[in-house]
Write a structure and sequence with these properties.
The chain has 291 residues and is α/β, with parallel strands linked by helices. It has one domain: NAD(P)-binding Rossmann-like Domain (Rossmann fold, 3-Layer(aba) Sandwich), CATH 3.40.50. Helices cover 43% and strands 16% of the residues. The strands form four sheets. The protein has a six-stranded parallel β-sheet with strand order 2-1-3-4-5-10, sandwiched between helices. Strands 6-9 form a two-stranded parallel sheet. α1 crosses α7, α2 runs parallel beside α4 and α4 runs parallel beside α5. It starts with a strand and ends with a helix.
């Protein structure tokens, strides 16, 4: 199949390109230099030239604080961008896979969110991502909107200075010997390679709609750090940060665990426990570092 991947040089996009390539598909990796999703003319020109059967959108304005400071720019990237992709995908009779976020919820439920739960974003990032979801779902029948959580991957995350949570924890442990991490936020850490594999699986199904797509299980950021240090045998004094020690500049959900109910209902859930994916990630990182 012919697959266009938007945001192909990003943390998730890199693994999506690799997963479809390994699957034997013809992949068109598109970066910001190739296509400007907020510009309908740019989207139409590039996609009509390539005529993909599936468009995968991993591009977004991810930095939560920057979204709060520049809401118009965030809306252009996170809402108008998906809208433009949906419009052109409809013209081309192509399917659109659009990646969204757990930040569409406020975190007050206290148990895993399912697809039917009412969204209530707390910040500009969540609101603009939710708007993007609505555009895609209302404009295109053949859509897959995938909400995910706490992504990490081998490729650099440019929105976070090129370093994901795992890399940051290991760096701080080496440099300081002591690390403090909050335990009041609960997520489902999800590897980009696992999500990319799930996207490939869904691309072969005649199933469309809204899906939650995260690793199985959940943990606090403190528990995530514990597992990182345990698996890497890192000597470190890990402490729970006081609630006011790292005050958030922007409101974020305290509990944003997603249940992959629709993936399981359709029999296509390919995710395993988050601990297994973390172990695979760290194993690959070690191999890469020694080569």
């Amino acid at each position: 199949m012919k697959i266009a991947v938007i945001g192909a040089n990003g943390q998730l996009g890199t693994d999506v390109v690799r997963a479809f390539t390994d699957n034997g598909d013809e992949v068109f990796p598109l970066t910001h230099e190739d296509i400007e999703v907020a510009n309908l003319e740019s989207v139409s020109s590039k996609l009509c030239e390539l005529r993909p059967e599936i468009v995968v959108n991993t591009a977004a304005m991810h930095h939560v604080e920057n979204c709060e400071r520049e809401p118009e720019r965030a809306y252009a990237a996170n809402a108008l961008g998906p809208r433009n992709l949906a419009v052109v995908a409809r013209e081309l009779h192509a399917a659109l896979v659009h990646v969204s976020t757990d930040y569409v919820f406020d975190g007050n439920k206290g148990s895993p969110y399912v697809e039917e739960d009412a969204p209530r974003p707390l910040n500009v990032y969540g609101n603009t991502k939710l708007a993007g979801e609505y555009f895609v779902r209302s404009l295109l029948d053949r859509h897959l909107v995938l909400r995910t959580s706490a992504l990490y991957g081998q490729a650099p995350c440019r929105a976070k200075g090129g370093r994901n949570f795992i890399d940051l924890m290991l760096k701080l442990a080496r440099e300081r010997g002591e690390v403090k991490v909050v335990d009041c936020e609960v997520v489902s850490p999800t590897s980009t390679s696992a999500l990319a594999r799930q996207i490939v699986v869904l691309s072969r199904c005649d199933t469309y709609g809204l899906f939650h797509a995260t690793a199985e299980g959940s943990c606090s950021w403190y528990e995530f750090a514990q597992e990182i240090f345990s698996l890497t045998n890192t000597p470190v004094n890990l402490k729970i940060a006081a609630p006011d020690e790292f005050p958030a500049k922007v409101p974020r959900p305290k509990y944003s665990v997603l249940e992959n109910r629709e993936l399981k209902r359709h029999g296509v859930n390919s995710f395993g426990p988050w601990q297994e994916d973390l172990a695979k990630y760290l194993s690959c990182s070690l191999v890469t570092a020694t080569n």
